[in-house]
Amino acid sequence: MSEVANSRPLLRATGVTKIFPGTVALDHVDFTLQPAEVHALLGENGAGKSTLIKCLTGAYRRDDGDILLNGEPVDPRGTLDAQSYGIGTVYQEVNLLPNLSVAENLFLGHQPTRFGMISGREMTRRARETLSQYGLDIDPARSLGDFSVAVQQVIAIARAVNLSGKVLILDEPTASLDSGEVKMLFDIIRSLRDRGIGIIFISHFLDQVFEISDRVTVLRNGRLIGTEDAANIDRVQLVNMMLGRELEHETRETGKTDLAPGAPWLEFDDFGKKGRIAPFDLKIRPGEVVGMAGLLGSGRTETAETLFGAVTHDSGTARSRGEEIELRSPRDAVAAGFGFCPEDRKIDGIIADLSVRENIILALQARIGWARPVPRRRQAEMAEDFIRRLDIRTSDAEKPVGLLSGGNQQKVLLARWLATNPKFLILDEPTRGIDVGAHAEIIHLIEELCAEGMSLLVISSELDELVAYSHRVIVVRDRHHVAELVGADITTDNMVDAIASAHNGSAT
Amino acid sequence: MSGTARFLRRIAPQLITLAFVLALISVMFPGFFNISIANGRLYGSPIDILNRGAPVALLAIGMTLVIATRGIDLSVGAVMAICGAVSAWGITQGYDLGSTLLMAVVAGLVCGLWNGILVSFLGIQPIVATLILMVAGRGIAQLITEGAILTFNDPNLIFFGSGSLFTLPMPVVIWIVTGLLITWIVRRTALGMLIESVGINLRASTLAGINSRVLLIAVYVTSGFCAALAGIIAAADIRGADANNAGLWLELDAILAVVIGGTSLLGGRFSLIASLIGAMIIQAVNTGILLSGFPPEFNLVIKAAIILIILVVQSPALRTGMAFFRKPRQTDVAKKETVTQ
Ligand SMILES: Nc1ncnc2c1ncn2[C@@H]1O[C@H](COP(=O)(O)OP(=O)(O)OP(=O)(O)O)[C@@H](O)[C@H]1O
Ligand SMILES: [Mg+2]
């Protein structure tokens, strides 16, 4: 829709169109960014948000449309070129260089120089200074690949903020951040806005959208649905604009009252790995959902990787139905009926060039062995089935999964493990980057599967979400399991307390 | 049906290139396509290309699988020399043909196993891991032949170089059968997809429960096996094992065949048939230069130039460049669509 043309827009895009084989990703979309505003870009998975910003920066060649920056037509040819116009971008998939140091990643292309030489010491000092604004106390000389996705995300943001003189674009920057870091990021965004910079912010967290944005633009199926002032619209209206329908069961405030009855079938005793996670005991009942809360780097992902054999444990034993089982590799874990959706879908999850179908049947095929291929017809059926059940937006099952939108890739990963019919599924940030509609669907699906007897370990930074579906929540801090909350004790406040308290965990 | 169409589309650039090279040669040498039959065996330049191209074709089969896992096998030329030496040694020591062939093949498998272990268990980069055997392999072959060219006269072994079956030269039969057999195995089972998966994203594949280590070893072992067959053919062809020259530089031709075949050196999607066509393209170029009577000094330069042209024509940059010209039309279509809605 049209909006009142106040002052001169900072960035104005009209009629932006992008066509991929089989998909019209953007269909004559208009978008206007004012100076000194935070403008949220919203829409379902696959709506075209990432594609729009890639067309703005020239990372994709648009098929049609014009871009004006301060009234001048511009045609950036790529991320670097866009930077020279003062447009800094953090894409959804962090694209830094893992082999280079943190400092080099921060300053690549505009390193501080001294007598014409790159000054390493100066660079490290400036890097440390920059990162401390984000509350990150790490050694900038270490290579980026050593750090978690979240830390990398912060570094990517810091880099883009440094570079953006006029426009800052953030594609789901908060997906892997915890609340403290989000707060810090928002402070920085506000101060940039006050300096007159226009910020485009993509997120599926509506609370964050309402907290930070001045205006919102909603896309659906590659079309512009509308642009509104954030103050004039409420959550329900916004969701309706995004989905084109009402959301049925969005949230649930209370935790699961009762623990799933029955004896534990999985028992981990004194299970741990030096330097990653201190030995812990864990018992899992059939149909039980165990949540796991903690800060970044607290040992949640490490727990998951150790349980799944991705990192081989060096202490303790695992028993399934009383019998000791070997868990030295992911293969062992898969054979024992485990599944694991990792946190970093790009590096640990998707096989980008394989098709959606092949990605979905991959774990199943690996389990039954190379000699017995899943029949082609069956593969196609399974793919179609999951595409429908999880509402995966793709032109067809043969599309390489790397070409799907971020949230849809996440759904493909979930499908891969559901296809194996696991008895114990470990989900590390399963709803990251997933839109509100699909979010509810996935939680609904999880509950259904648990009712059928599957057990689940879910790691999430969204405490509300943990409250909604967990029977039990384990709190992790400093690589130790420090507290366990059960039943009515599962509240966000209790979790926050346990995460924050310096010594002993609170409720048990 | 659509599978066949997709397959044809995949190998079309290679087929067109091959046809183009052959057409070029036949323009210069009108008698090029003449094929005659004598003593129950086909003769003629096209048959000669199939025959001379056998070693590179065989190496390209193993190389394709290795490259699909994002690896490379530089040792295949040296492994050819080892296996040729083993077969010459075996037959001159009086072993029967079966045992001799078995020993040569086992030598190839062991070489592949060695490479595979270095790559998958010790995590050494493939280019470095296989370089070791590339350098050491000729030394090992020399040890077996005791420094001389070990010649033999056993007609049974010679048959693998110059004999014929169903009117086709034996080497041709061997590479075609091996190529089809391995294609059948990797595409009928899930191996092909698992290999591609490991090549595209090793970490994610391992986390999905794929036994990547065993898979990596398997592709290097296959490569060793193919090199052994190539080594036997090469030795049988010259009736002797030349540790210094057998298979010399053929690893590079094999890699080139894979690249011409459109398999990315970054791993992932592969096509054995396309690599085999690639091997034939290389051999056709070789034969064409030979026929043309250019002084041999020019051979390598001309070959390099021709291959450069082939690669440029197939390069993605050129393809996107061509797509660029088609773009305006695409947008028109989109506009029409939106108008109707
Ligand atoms: N390179 C590409 N090739 C083909 N199709 C693509 C490509 N990139 C994106 N698409 C398609 O374009 C559509 C829009 O994708 P886009 O990544 O913009 O979605 P998004 O709104 O960012 O979603 P998400 O919230 O999941 O990140 C999707 O249907 C996707 O499959
Ligand atoms: Mg996106």
TrEMBL record, chain A:
Residues 11-246, 254-503 form the ABC transporter domain. Keywords: ATP-binding, Cell membrane, Membrane, Nucleotide-binding, Repeat, Sugar transport, Translocase, Transport. GO terms for cellular component: plasma membrane. PROSITE patterns: ABC_TRANSPORTER_1 (PS00211), ABC_TRANSPORTER_2 (PS50893). Coiled coil: none annotated. It is a peripheral membrane protein. Gene3D superfamilies: P-loop containing nucleotide triphosphate hydrolases. It comes from the Bacteria. Pfam families: ABC_tran. One of its GO terms (molecular function) is ATP binding. The keyword Translocase applies. It is found in: Cell membrane. Belongs to the ABC transporter superfamily. NCBIfam families: YtfR_transport. This is Sugar ABC transporter ATP-binding protein. It comes from Pseudohoeflea suaedae. The lineage of its organism: Bacteria, Pseudomonadati, Pseudomonadota, Alphaproteobacteria, Hyphomicrobiales.
From TrEMBL, chain B:
CDD domains: TM_PBP1_transp_AraH_like. It is found in: Cell membrane. InterPro entries: ABC_transp_permease (IPR001851). It comes from the Bacteria. GO terms for molecular function: transmembrane transporter activity. It is a multi-pass membrane protein. Keywords: Cell membrane, Membrane, Transmembrane, Transmembrane helix. Pfam families: BPD_transp_2. The keyword Nucleotide-binding does not apply. One of its GO terms (cellular component) is plasma membrane. The chain crosses the membrane at residues 12-37, 49-67, 101-124, 131-152, 158-186, 214-236, 248-266, 273-294, 300-318. PANTHER family: ABC TRANSPORTER PERMEASE PROTEIN YPHD-RELATED-RELATED (PTHR32196), GALACTOFURANOSE TRANSPORTER PERMEASE PROTEIN YTFT (PTHR32196:SF19). This is ABC transporter permease. The lineage of its organism: Bacteria, Pseudomonadati, Pseudomonadota, Alphaproteobacteria, Hyphomicrobiales.
